[in-house]
Amino acid sequence: MNTKQIQRFVLKYLEATGSQIIEKGHAHVTVKLSPEADRELTNRSYYWNFVERTGVEPETMTFTFIFDPEAHQAAQTGIGGGQPAGLPPSGAPTLGGGAAPPTPGAAGAGPTGPRGAHTGVGPTGGSAGAAGPGAAGGSAPGSTGAAALGPASAPAGAPAAGTAGTGQPSESILGRYFGFVPTSPVSRVPQDVLTYGSRRLEQIFAVVRGKGRFIRLFEDLKAARSVPLSQGYSSWFGVNFKVQLACDMKRDELHSLGFDLATGEIVEQFHDSLTGRRLTPKLPVNVHVLPTRFTPAKAMILLENYLEKVLRRYDHTWAEQAAERLEDELRRIDEYYLDLLKAADESLRPDIEQQYRNRQQEIDWQYRPRVTASVINCGIFHLQGRPGPAIDENR
Q1: Which H/E stretch holds residue 332?
Q2: In this structure, are residues 33 and 63 in contact, taking their beta carbons and an 8 Å threshold?
Q3: 337: nearest Cα among 350, 351, 354, 356
Q4: In the chain, what are the domain boundaries?
Q5: What is the pLDDT of the chain when averaged over all its residues?
Q6: Contacts 24+ apart (CB under 8 A), 307-315
Q7: CA-to-CA separations, 65 to 20, 91, 202, in angstroms, rounded
Q8: d(CA 349, CA 340)
Q9: What is the SS3 string spanning 350-395?
Q10: How far apart are CA 209 and CA 214, in angstroms?
Q11: What does the alpha-carbon distance between residue 355 and residue 178 come to, in Å, rounded to a whole number?
Q12: Crossing angle of helices 3-16/199-211, nearest 10°?
């Protein structure tokens, strides 16, 4: 998968789980996870047990998922090494250790007073002199410049820390049950790089595979809504098998089989026959499901038997050749270790025998031919009519 495919996949997952996208860029996305996604990705089982016991509103986490680290780093630092927007140029002096510049007429902002005292902003951000040329006699004795803008000053009328702007202190879940808890917001948002093979992307893959293994869908037809009489849908049990033919070489095949739960008919390339149909998880209007004769468990047994018959008709010359290579490799191992055991001391013979058995097991696992079949996913599909098998133009 390339970067664009990973980005589309992750965004589709976030949309399906109801997560809130805060910021979206070409190389990243900042998202506030939904409760469903937070449970699946953050591994906060203790927190979610607490939420379930108390019944409070959950507070989900916010993440920044980076799809292209180089492009994201270039966007953060600016193309060509420029500084991010909103910061002063490098080497420019700051007022009061980073405080905002004073407004005209504020104390400490005017020129030198009548007594010659320096009126600039000092190291602590306070004023050391008069307010300006019109001030009589300069500053009062003992003045410490409390009127100047310092790092601890705040605009008049601003809400105090820990309030929501209405004079009432903000309350968190932990503060409600365990007393005072600092509620200052955390500015750092966790970041995860989602490239192929990364831990977080593999975690999302596993979640999607677990959710998509079993589905139930209905064919959605606009014509069925306009017909006054209810239409009957047949039920099909579709299974996608992965068949692996392995020895010292390997070949994987996908077999998609469909089973009619009413008649017992089996069709191949079932998934291809569904690509042109519009499917929905909800039962459409004016549609009813016809009765069935087979259960999904019985259908699975019959599909496995059918797949076994198909595999038996294969040309298994490859297995015979792999068995010959296996015998040849085992013969070489025997010749080497049997001579080694004859010349070895009694103290070293147990270690050599153990190494001999391990080597035999490795060669057997590598060269012995085998055919395995596993289920990728399956589902029940309620369709109008019989799904016709796809036409293979290469036949």
Answers
A1: helix 317-343
A2: yes
A3: 356
A4: 3-76+171-207, 215-316+369-383
A5: 77
A6: 307/241, 307/243, 307/255, 307/257, 307/373, 310/255, 311/243, 311/371, 311/373
A7: 13, 33, 14
A8: 9
A9: HHHHHHHHHHHHHHHHHHCCEEEEEEEEEEEEEECCCCCCCCCCCC
A10: 10
A11: 61
A12: 50
Structure tokens belonging to residue 368: 């012995």
Whole-prediction pTM value?
Answer: 0.58
Residue 375, token pair as written in the block: 């289920």
| Structure tokens that stand for 27 in this block | 């190389």
Residue 121 DSSP symbol: B
- The DSSP 8-state label assigned to residue 184 in this structure reads P
pLDDT tens-digit series, residues 384-393 = 887 765 444 3
Judge whether 174 and 182 are in contact, CB under 8 Å.
Answer: no
Structure tokens at 214: 């079993």
218 phi/psi in degrees, rounded to 5: -120, 145
Structural contact between residues 127 and 121, judged by C-beta atoms closer than 8 angstroms: yes
Tens-digit pLDDT profile for residues 231-251? 889 999 999 999 999 999 999
| Count of CB atoms situated within 10 Å of the CB of 11 | 17
Helix (H) or strand (E) holding 66: strand 62-66
Q: Specify the residue for token string 């079949």.
A: 373
How far apart CA 234 and CA 384 sit, in angstroms, is 6
SS3 content of the chain, % helix, strand, coil (to 5): 35, 20, 45
Name which of 367, 359, 362, 371 is nearest 248 in CA terms: 367
d(CA 11, CA 29): 9
β-pairing, 370-383 vs 250-260, is: unpaired
